[in-house]
Amino acid sequence: MTIFGIVLGSWMAGAAKAEVVLLAGFGSCFMMGVSGFFGALMAEKAERERHLKDMEEATRNRVAPTHYKAARFVMLYVALIDGLSPTLTAIISLIPFISAFMRIISISGAYLA
Predict the structure, then answer these.
(1) I want to staple 75 with a disulfide (CB 3.0 to 4.6 A). Which of 2, 37, 44, 82 is the partner?
(2) What pLDDT is recorded for position 87?
(3) pLDDT tens, residue by residue, 45-100
């Protein structure tokens, strides 16, 4: 939806260069990725720490070190996926403008696509 807003806004403003849409689009893609990554990282960290604390209480601090390593891995993995998925999806929406920048299609064709 962010890229749709950028494309619609630039079309309504009459932007005739693909570079304008691409710069705004890639900037938004990057920031959506950063926001998604750090938002998921903080949420997952809190969730994993709570889960490990519950395990420590239930087992009287006899939690294997692999549980801590697994929690750290899952936390980073989920954050990476949560950051990359909106970024890559938004980049797909910019493909027509990449084509227009490379002079494969016209800018009006890119807006239509």
Answers:
(1) 44
(2) 93
(3) 999 999 999 999 998 888 888 989 999 999 999 999 999 999 999 999 999 999 99
Q: Which amino acid is at 50?
A: R
Entry pTM: 0.81
What's the burial of 12, exposed, middle or buried (CB within 10 Å: 0-12/13-18/19+)?
A: exposed
CB 113 within 8 A of CB 24: no
Q: Rounded to a whole number, what is the distance in angstroms from the first to the last CA of the chain?
A: 15
Spell out the alpha helix ranges (H) of the chain: 2-13, 18-59, 65-93, 95-101, 107-112
Amino acid letter, 90 = A
Burial class (CB in 10 A: 0-12, 13-18, 19+), 94: buried
- Taking all residues of the chain, what is their mean pLDDT, rounded to a whole number? 94
Cβ–Cβ < 8 Å for 68, 34: no
> How far does Cα 53 stand from its chain's mean position?
30
- Residue identified by tokens 């959506």 is 32
